[in-house]
């Protein structure tokens, strides 16, 4: 099956202050396929969030191109492009525009001047996808941070986009809401074939991605699956099972020198026990 | 000098604007010994933050009393007691950087000590000391807090609390919103001060790895009540009970439980950290 | 802060609660005008009966309404006082040169007092029984004709609805910053006025900064979700005019007729 590319970034460069020589991003190129989950990681100041803002057209690149669903992003096309790409930001509090859950989800549809019946249908559908239908009449003060972020995602889904950008959208949530939201995202990817680009410094979140891009001072330092990346980049703090594998390796235990997920680790331990 | 914190059947309401939350604290009896390091856990709205506020006289009990060291707070007028308590108890709120207001970092850090009658000269010298404690350079003193990065702001805000030279340090999710490295550095600093200055330390957290790595004791809150107060290690032993409270377990413990289930081998002890789990696996000869 | 009744919403499911906000707004504004038809005790008694009926229908205790009057009572009494002093006619009880207290003055003062109280009661009925967002929608609908005059009605009502949505957040944040500064030894409401003013700086500056940040975040969110101020938008929140709304306006018409019948023709005697 041929996969279609939904996001194409070509030699993208950007700097905030034109007087400075230093670029925030320099010559970034990358693609995201339909239905792919891509994580972008990197230390603070590596340009991750700038990339997100460029992708949704909140700021304009100095050079290079962004193509979303084959449309090049520019000042006039951005309004159309934004029907295909949506973004969830970090602070759940500042993204809730409507006075109730369903009003908030409808906001982007109202902006398209969509007729009421169509809006109602889409709002219902989107709320269902994130599991918030029962709370549709609630106001934001009655919701947890995780629920607010789910509403923000529903607001984007209502537009039936191809790609969802998460700009550290899970940072302010507690571990439990974080896990719940990740499950929602995994389901969306599976059922709706939606692409996800998550900008994060949570390695457990990054490890769920199909591919990870590591940014460092505005450049792509490495790119690959979690198996490849966490082995190639020993400075990254990997998910816990990989930490355990490294710890055991340090103690001269006979453990395979490749990345392991939690399941793989437990399975390997089971087998190794049988061979003892 | 370390001080103990004691709650004696404390019941309290809380009021924000027109909204009144009744019984945010419901007949709480609690004794945190001098020099202890306690993690407070529980759902959002379970009363964790209120418990912390009561330790600083920001919530006054309408029944029962809170005693910090020798000072007692109960219903009624407490002016003197409140002043004494707020000087002894350093309280770091969630996202404390949002309370920075002064033109310079130095002025912001001096705000607390000056309020408690410390001279300007002394306050300034304290500012230098605490800034070093939070791992920042003195050159930052003359900068505007607004010009700093998120992590630096957090440290300046915490320095502003340390500057009051408290005997008790109370922190509401000090690592929230930071990247993993920034978070670890903050928590390690807190642990270091706890030991050096013999503080009584209380942190609220949602992250069970924080509980496992840094705290000695754990308090579980539910519906404004303390439902459990235990040593960290014994607390994470009974997994069924934890499930009932919807409490997670630390990553090491979680992997331990999975391994035990799949291999059918019970590892010695409760593993709370990575080295402990590795040791246990080697000990039973799984690897 | 929590003593202010005017402008607050009391959730409920009374007949008045369920009326369309447009009907409530029109009826309330109409009531204020129709009040001026009253000019004798019969008309005032009748209006009081009407007002009482509306209050009973709202299913909110009369005490709440009285609390709504409290912050304005001195202003009302002052106005009434002036009215009493400067209206002449009828039997004179006190005579101090230009200032007299006469029979007409007292009667007029009492009528004015009634008018004030009824206006406050009826507007309080509207705000107590209507969600702020529904009020905004209602006003937006009623002001729609002004769009032809290039008044940005939709923008204004969106602004209003977003502000309403953030009021609880702002209260929350104020409380948080106050607590934080109290923990650092600030004592509010103590010492001289200058000293008290000084304690406000550590409150307002952080609130100002966080409001600015919030505004920036909101602007970004609105933009990426496709909001353009000069583009036509549809509305998801629908108002539905029902039979009871028409009935309520008919009641207002009947009230007018009744007042016209009951009032004395010509002013005075």
UniProtKB/TrEMBL annotation, chain C:
Entry's family note: Belongs to the energy-coupling factor EcfT family.
Presence of the UniProt keyword Transferase in the record: no
HAMAP family, A to Z: EcfT
Main location: membrane
Described function: Transmembrane (T) component of an energy-coupling factor (ECF) ABC-transporter complex. Unlike classic ABC transporters this ECF transporter provides the energy necessary to transport a number of different substrates.
Assigned keywords, A-Z: Cell membrane, Membrane, Transmembrane, Transmembrane helix, Transport
Compartments, as annotated in UniProt: Cell membrane
Residues spanning the signal sequence: none
Membrane topology field: Multi-pass membrane protein
Source species of the chain: Aquibacillus rhizosphaerae
Transmembrane segments: 21-38, 44-60, 72-94, 106-129, 247-266
Subunit-structure text: Forms a stable energy-coupling factor (ECF) transporter complex composed of 2 membrane-embedded substrate-binding proteins (S component), 2 ATP-binding proteins (A component) and 2 transmembrane proteins (T component).
The name this protein goes by in its record: Energy-coupling factor transporter transmembrane protein EcfT
Pfam families linked: CbiQ
């Amino acid at each position: 099956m041929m996969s279609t590319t939904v996001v194409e970034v070509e030699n993208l460069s950007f700097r905030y202050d034109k007087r400075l020589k230093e670029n925030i991003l320099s010559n970034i190129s990358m693609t995201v396929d339909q239905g792919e989950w891509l994580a972008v990681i990197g230390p603070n100041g590596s340009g991750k969030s700038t990339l997100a803002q460029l992708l949704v057209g909140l700021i304009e690149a100095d050079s290079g191109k962004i193509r979303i669903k084959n449309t090049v992003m520019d000042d006039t096309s951005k309004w159309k492009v934004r029907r295909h790409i949506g973004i969830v930001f970090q602070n759940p509090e500042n993204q809730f525009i409507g006075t109730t859950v369903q009003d908030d989800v409808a906001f982007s549809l109202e902006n398209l001047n969509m007729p009421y019946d169509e809006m109602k249908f889409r709002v219902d559908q989107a709320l269902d996808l994130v599991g918030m239908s029962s709370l549709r009449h609630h106001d934001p003060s009655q919701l947890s941070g995780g629920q607010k972020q789910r509403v923000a995602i529903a607001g984007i889904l209502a537009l039936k986009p191809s790609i969802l950008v998460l700009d550290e959208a899970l940072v302010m949530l507690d571990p439990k809401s974080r896990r719940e939201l990740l499950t929602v995202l995994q389901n969306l990817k599976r059922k709706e074939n939606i692409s996800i680009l998550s900008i994060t410094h949570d390695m457990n979140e990054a490890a769920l991605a199909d591919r990870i891009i590591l940014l460092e001072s505005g450049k792509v330092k490495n790119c690959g699956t979690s198996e490849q990346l966490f082995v190639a980049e020993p400075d990254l703090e990997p998910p816990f099972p990989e930490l355990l594998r490294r710890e055991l390796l340090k103690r001269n235990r006979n453990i395979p020198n490749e990345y392991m997920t939690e399941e793989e680790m437990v399975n390997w331990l089971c087998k190794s026990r049988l061979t003892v | 000098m370390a001080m103990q914190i004691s709650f004696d059947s404390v019941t309290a309401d809380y009021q924000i604007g027109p909204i009144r939350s009744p019984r945010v604290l419901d007949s709480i009896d609690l004794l945190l010994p001098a020099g202890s390091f306690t993690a407070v856990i529980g759902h959002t709205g379970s009363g964790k933050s209120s418990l912390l506020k009561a330790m600083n006289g920001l919530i006054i009990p309408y029944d029962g009393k809170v005693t910090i060291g020798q000072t007692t707070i109960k219903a009624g007028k407490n002016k003197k007691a409140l002043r004494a308590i707020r000087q002894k108890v350093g309280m770091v709120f969630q996202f404390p950087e949002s309370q920075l207001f002064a033109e310079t970092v130095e002025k912001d850090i001096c705000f607390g000590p000056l309020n408690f009658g410390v001279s300007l000269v002394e306050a300034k010298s304290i500012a230098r000391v605490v800034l070093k404690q939070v791992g920042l350079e003195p050159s930052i003193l003359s900068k505007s807090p607004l010009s700093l990065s998120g992590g630096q702001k957090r440290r300046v805000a915490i320095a502003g609390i340390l500057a009051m030279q408290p005997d008790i340090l109370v922190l509401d999710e000090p690592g929230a919103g930071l990247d993993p490295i920034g978070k670890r550095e903050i928590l390690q600093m807190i642990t270091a001060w706890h030991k050096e200055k013999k503080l009584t330390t209380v942190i609220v957290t949602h992250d069970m790895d924080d509980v496992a790595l840094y705290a000695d004791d754990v308090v579980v809150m539910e519906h404004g009540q303390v439902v459990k107060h235990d040593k960290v290690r014994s607390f994470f032993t009974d997994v069924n009970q934890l499930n009932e409270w919807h409490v997670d377990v630390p990553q090491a413990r979680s992997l331990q439980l999975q391994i035990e289930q799949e291999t059918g081998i019970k590892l010695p002890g409760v593993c709370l950290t990575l080295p402990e789990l590795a040791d246990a696996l080697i000990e039973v000869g799984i690897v | 802060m929590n003593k202010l009744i005017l402008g607050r919403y009391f959730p409920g499911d009374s007949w008045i609660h369920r009326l369309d906000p447009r009907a409530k707004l029109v009826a309330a504004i109409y009531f204020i005008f129709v009040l001026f038809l009253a000019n004798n005790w019969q008309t005032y008694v009748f209006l009081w009966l009407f007002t009482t009926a509306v209050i009973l229908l709202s299913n909110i205790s009369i005490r709440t309404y009285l609390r709504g009057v409290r912050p304005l009572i001195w202003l009302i009494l002052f106005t009434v006082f002036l009215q009493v002093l400067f209206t002449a006619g009828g039997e004179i009880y006190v005579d101090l040169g230009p200032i007299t207290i006469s029979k007409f003055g007292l009667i007029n003062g009492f009528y004015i007092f009634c008018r004030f109280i009824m206006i406050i009661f009826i507007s309080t009925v509207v705000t107590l029984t209507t969600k702020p967002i529904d009020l905004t929608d209602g006003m937006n609908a009623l002001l729609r004709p002004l769009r032809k005059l290039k008044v940005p009605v939709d923008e204004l009502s969106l602004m209003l609805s977003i502000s309403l949505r953030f009021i609880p957040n702002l209260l929350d944040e104020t409380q948080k910053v106050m607590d934080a500064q109290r923990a650092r030894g600030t004592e509010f409401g103590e010492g001289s006025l200058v000293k008290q003013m000084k304690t406000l700086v550590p409150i307002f500056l952080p609130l100002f900064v966080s409001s600015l940040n919030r505004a920036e975040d909101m602007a970004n969110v609105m933009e990426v979700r496709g909001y353009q101020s000069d583009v036509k938008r549809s509305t998801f929140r629908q108002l539905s005019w029902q039979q009871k709304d028409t009935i309520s306006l008919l009641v207002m018409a009947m009230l007018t007729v009744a007042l016209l019948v009951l009032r004395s023709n010509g002013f005075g005697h």
